[in-house]
Amino acid sequence: xxxxxxxxxxxxxxxxxxxxxxxxxxxxxxxxxxxxxxxxxxxxxxxxxxxxxxxxxxxxxxxxxxxxxxxxxxxxxxxxxxxxxxxxxxxxxxxxxxxxxxxxxxxxxxxxxxxxxxxxxxxxxxxxxxxxxxxxxxxxxxxxxxxxxxxxxxxxxxxxxxxxxxxxxxxxxxxxxxxxxxxxxxxxxxxxxxxxxxxxxxxxxxxxxxxxxxxxxxxxxxxxxxxxxxxxxxxxxxxxxxxxxxxxxxxxxxxxxxxxxxxxxxxxxxxxxxxxxxxxxxxxxxxxxxxxxxxxxxxxxxxxxxxxxxxxxx
Length: 314
Fold this sequence. Notes:
CATH superfamily of the largest domain: Glycosidases
Structural class: alpha/beta
Low-confidence stretches: 1-6
CATH class of the largest domain: Alpha Beta
């Protein structure tokens, strides 16, 4: 199967500057940015914090997925309303961004508190949409907590009531699940997609964080996942390329090494994403905005290298 889904927004979460990451992975056009750690103080300036997280990505021509946590009871008290209104007006005048309200809520809110979270989420989304109808507000689930038997997602209908523009899931293979597990084999992802996406036709979905732990089979696992992604319908796919809060060195793939793993990841991103400076052409080719050239995805890396060599980088 060699017909990629051209509408996927592909990205890498990496500690390096966004421009460096986009150059290393042709097809990557977004990053995941986090405001925190933890929930913001009720005195925080939302515009200042979002701008600080998003500005470097915008400067590199990319689209940031910015995660922010506001305590649900504070949201429902109305203490954030004026600042949410201000944020909406500000976002309307900025380049595109996706705002994630409280990523992985299933890991923080028990079933008893889940309804409060959902009400707060919907309040945040409605408040921002009132000032900026085209704002993109995302819900980002924790795939681990959607595994069969999880106590925080016993009643999926509670979480299904989240009203978002985009539904994301953070999914990791390794540790709790075999490292060779691709998305359609992952118990948490399977159940989340069935209960949150498939149960409500028309919802846009994707991967807010995707990690596969280092193993002898990681390159092949990436190739299998790329094959599945080509027709899966994901709107977003962000690869997790840092050690994370746990300091796990097995998550990142160092592209400088040009290993089988880095080549497989680069191929996955190129297969499903549209690189900066390009638009999708006929029959899922790409058109270089600078040169006007029509490029097959398989020739993308060679084209970008040539343009850079002649001093006209895409």
